[in-house]
Amino acid sequence: MIERDGPLSLSRQCTLLKVSRSSQYYRPKGESAENLALMRRMDELHMAYPFYGSRQMMRHLRREGLKAGRHRIRRLMRVMGMEATYRRPRTSVAGPEHRVFPYLLRGLAISRADHVWCADITYVPVTQGFFYLVAVMDWATRHVLAWRLSPATRSRTGCWGRAWRSRWTAGAAFSTTSSSNGCGGR
Question: How many domains does the chain have?
């Protein structure tokens, strides 16, 4: 909204818009080459040790000969959206507005093939990002009925549809799960 070559001065425009004048002169700088190299190594370590927080990450980097303080590591982890994975308190307590669906397979004796299927989706990290892995299995025989590996989540339905077309029988039950590290349900 602020015009540098407008009829009003820059300070007058900032006053009218109630914006600080210094914010109009500031040009954000990107990360330095040293920080980018450190961030790349931190990303590699996070894939190998996802439970590392800023302190353990700092210790590991120092053992490798890279000098970085804990606050710098913490800032870079925050910039990268990196967070240590660990069991957090009260994760299984549902909210009061959360609807609880009944588990329809409780007490069901799974006695034959194609009686109950399950599906799961998870992601596999690769060099350029993530691939999504979807699998449909038969509970009685533990056979994988269909699976699909795709760079996009849209192919989830393609895998399920493939299994439905190839094996569906009337009266079969279907159960879905989502992996703890996957993208199901998000």
Answer: 2
Q: Which domain covers residue 43, as residue numbers?
A: 32-87
Q: What is the DSSP string of 131-171?
A: EEEEEEEETTT--EEEEEEESSGGGHHHHHHHHHHHH--TT
Residue 121 belongs to what H/E stretch? strand 116-126
Q: Are 110 and 117 spatial neighbours (Cβ–Cβ below 8 Å)?
A: no
The b/e string for 104-125 (b: 16+ C-beta within 10 A; e otherwise) is eeeeeeeeeebbbbbbbbbbee
Is residue 55 within a helix (H) or strand (E), and if so which, with residue range?
helix 54-63
- Report pTM: 0.43
The pLDDT tens digits for 123-166 are 888 877 778 888 888 888 988 888 888 776 554 455 566 656 65
Amino acid code (one letter) for 39: M
Distance CA 69, CA 54 (A): 9
Residue owning tokens 């407008």: 6
Residue 76, class by beta-carbon neighbours within 10 Å (0-12 exposed, 13-18 middle, 19+ buried)?
buried
149 belongs to a structural domain: yes
For residues 31 and 40, give the distance between their C-alpha atoms in angstroms, rounded to a whole number: 12
